[in-house]
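Sequence only, no structure available. Ideas?
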Amino acid sequence: MNSDNLQNTLYSLAQSGSLTNPAYNTLLHDYTKYHAVLFIEGGVFALILIMLSVYFWRRFKRMHRAETCNWTFEKKTYFCFGLTSTVVSLLMLLIVTANLSNILNPQEGFAQSIPDLGTPQAGTHKAVLYQAVNAWVQSGSTDIPSILQDEVRNRLSWQVPKAIICSILLAAFVAFTARLWKRLIKISQVSGTMWSMKEKVLIIIGVAAIPATLLLMIMALANTQASFAPITLTLLFS
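Reply:
I predicted one. Tokens follow.
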């Protein structure tokens, strides 16, 4: 194989369609797993969001029938949460569906991702890494280069804890946000539109908790994905 850089080497193997090179298969498997994790975990999040969407819209519809055109705080809350969960679930389903093609046909998706590797500047650590990976892929060896192993190990040393922390924070924020809005709804049922300063602050906190929770969901998803398939991200962002 006469390819003088990693991109050319991977292009040649991807275009050949051959799966007889163990080194290339390792990279391809990692790429496939990278998208499979997103498909599975993203699918779980999408399912939960769809269930929440159905719950909020049912509550809104029930209140709409009971109160006709009177938009109470509780009714507005269910409407906003129903709309938000619907939009986010649709976006999540779009992402999950897009990743399905990379799972069913990983070689095509992998070939399209090769330009993202770029060409590192000569003499840099990334250039040395690419040279080692290029030589490894050309040799077809099953032994991953030590420099790539070290980079993967370094990435996992912080990526895995970050995935765990983000997942725990996500669960905590979901519980906190749900409890806070239940409390606000109960307060509105008693006081109506008369809110004290403390209660207004709670509303602000409750509103801010929604995008924070969605951000944690994305962070938990991305870091979990990277923890299960670290080679792809190591090559892209080493």
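Helices lie at 6-16, 22-67, 73-104, 106-113, 125-139, 146-191, 197-228, 230-237.
Hope that gets you unstuck.
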